[in-house]
Structures are given as C-alpha cells and as structure tokens.
Amino acid sequence: MRKADLINKISDKTGIPKVDVLVTLETMFREIKASLASGENLYIRGFGSFIIKKRAAKIGRNIKKNVAVAIPEHFIPAFKPAKEFVQEIKSSPNIKEAPEVKEEPED
Question: How confident is the model at residue 71, as a pLDDT?
Fold first, then answer.
C-alpha cells in the first residue's frame, strides 16, 4: 500500500475529502519528525512508539579501497509496535508468509 492508497481508503471510510486527509496525514508525519528531531519520543497507545535509538561508534570498511573507516556514534529513528498491534498481526488469518518488499522511492 502506498500513501495515496491510504489516503483513498481513509477518505472512503470516513467521507472526509481526500485533500483534508492528505493535509492531516502530512501534518502528522511532520509532527512525528519534529518530535523525534527534538529528542522526544512519541507514544501512541495501542499502536506503538516512535523512538530514537543510539548507535554506538564502530569501525566499518570501504570495500572498494579496502580501508577501515570510523563510523561515529549516531542516532536513528525507530518504530516499536505495541503488544496489541503485534498480537493482531500474528493472529491475522490473511498473512501466510512474509510479503515481498519492493524498493520504492519515498513520497
């Protein structure tokens, strides 16, 4: 499912115009990014948590030049699903095996 498909589904189920759903979703994404960028985690009960994870410094390797490269300590965004969310997915009869992951550009 893509963002456009999600917007269409929400609009169809709620009767809210697609433009309003788009604006709401974009605002939600912007606020999640702003919250994480300011160092604040975001918790949504029953859905999950958007958190900041710390990655320790390590030594990587540039395989083209065969040179060791120091990768500094950094922070990355992560999503941790709520127990209810995980349980709902596990008990879903529609999922038989892992879906194919397609490389698509971000919207």
Answer: 93
